[in-house]
From TrEMBL:
It comes from Ligilactobacillus araffinosus DSM 20653. The lineage of its organism: Bacteria, Bacillati, Bacillota, Bacilli, Lactobacillales. One of its GO terms (cellular component) is cytosol. Homodimer. The active site is at 354 (for fru-6p isomerization activity). It catalyses: D-fructose 6-phosphate + L-glutamine = D-glucosamine 6-phosphate + L-glutamate. Its main location: cytoplasm. It comes from the Bacteria. This is Glutamine--fructose-6-phosphate aminotransferase [isomerizing]. One of its GO terms (biological process) is protein N-linked glycosylation. The chain holds residues 247 to 605 of 605 of the full protein.
């Protein structure tokens, strides 16, 4: 039910703080210990490498998961697009463990890989929003997203829920293996800080609506740029904008722009930069200047501790490995409002289906 909302997409964007709280409840105890099946933890610890396989937005959540599993659990991790992996399988490690990220649990491309994985006898985990979905039934283990039904075709709350579940799992693994980084990562506290930050951002949605009107309502193309984890967020932000507003949008590694793509920048081209990582902030700032010099309209999405007075969107400060969870909120809102302002069917963009059950 949409209730007071005109579209499911906006409702689902607004639900994200509650989903964070729900995940903390489902996966942690008040004393800080984790509620994750020990058999699953043991099976992953037995592996020498994680292979995350997914499509679309779920793949983008996997890119962030890569950082979380390597930093907190110190397990080498690869992330693969399901439709590529299925036909061009990489050389696998001796003891692989597969993680399927899928909101619906029904995506044919991901299912095809799981079928191959099962034939080869490798262990697997499906992280999904739908209990008893095909990928959940066929994988060795399941973790649920508890995001509630996602109706809008463009995925929003499933993306942030997937990243949160990856953070919870990485924490549980790292603690079980005795790593200090994981012990120091107070995931309950950090996800609560994220939830509050998300709430602040959704409460300011009308500022974002105005930015969409000013920079995107008439745009022909656009870019999201970022480095490191901000690059992971930029790719998802770009997918959101293109799929609902039909503005051709690319998510780009900020430093790579000058190696060719900068040729596309014209007077008025919107370039949205994401800056949450202090180690790379000055570099992305230089890339902003490069595109401004070529006429771009830069919109900066910047963490509070790195922000300047002129930055249009300021993000509440959260744990450095969880910044995607807050940085994506204004990007989802920009996409939503741009689509609405251009008069499109926000919840059902052309040519798309909620669950892609063909290869
Ligand atoms: C984009 C979107 C799609 C899905 C993709 C995978 O907003 O929703 O890119 O993320 O089709 O779907 P699931 O996660 O159901 O496997």
């Amino acid at each position: 039910e949409k209730g007071a909302y005109e579209h499911f997409m906006l409702k689902e964007i607004d639900e994200q703080p509650a989903v964070m709280h729900k995940l903390v409840q489902e996966y942690t105890n008040e004393d800080g210990s984790m509620k994750i099946d020990q058999d699953l933890i043991n099976a992953i610890e037995d592996a020498d490498r994680l292979y995350i396989v997914a499509a679309g937005t779920s793949y983008h959540a996997g890119l962030v998961g890569h950082e979380l599993f390597e930093k907190f659990a110190k397990i080498p991790t690869e992330v693969h697009v399901a439709s590529e992996f299925a036909y061009n399988q990489p050389l696998l490690s001796k003891k692989p463990f597969f993680i399927f990220l899928t909101q619906s649990g029904e995506t044919a491309d991901s299912h095809q890989v799981l079928t191959q994985v099962n034939e080869a006898g490798y262990p697997s985990l499906t992280i999904t929003n739908v209990a008893n979905s095909t990928l959940s039934r066929e994988a060795t283990y399941t973790l649920l997203l508890y995001a509630g039904p996602e109706i809008a075709v463009a995925s929003t709350k499933a993306y942030t829920a997937q990243i949160a579940v990856e953070a919870l799992l990485a924490k549980a693994l790292g603690v079980d293996m005795g790593y200090q980084e994981a012990k120091d990562f107070d995931v309950r506290k950090e996800l609560s800080i994220v939830a509050n930050g998300m709430q602040e951002l959704v409460d300011e949605k009308h500022d974002i609506e105005k930015l969409a009107q000013k920079y995107l309502a008439k745009a022909r193309n656009a870019f999201y740029i970022g480095r490191a984890i901000d690059y992971d967020t930029a790719i998802e932000a770009a997918l959101k904008l293109k799929e609902v507003s039909y503005i051709q949008t690319e998510g780009f590694a900020a430093g790579e722009l000058k190696h060719g793509t900068i040729a596309l920048i014209e007077e008025g081209t919107p370039v949205i930069s994401i800056i949450t990582d202090h180690t790379i902030a000055s570099h992305t700032r230089s890339n902003e200047e490069e595109v401004v010099a070529r006429g771009a309209n830069v919109i900066s999405i910047v963490s509070k501790d790195l922000a300047k007075d002129t930055d249009q969107i300021v993000l509440p400060t959260v744990h450095p490995l969880l910044t995607s969870l807050v940085a994506i909120i204004p990007a989802q809102l920009l996409a939503y409002y741009a689509s609405e302002q251009r008069g499109y069917d926000v919840d059902k963009p052309r040519n798309l289906a909620k669950s892609v059950t063909v290869e």
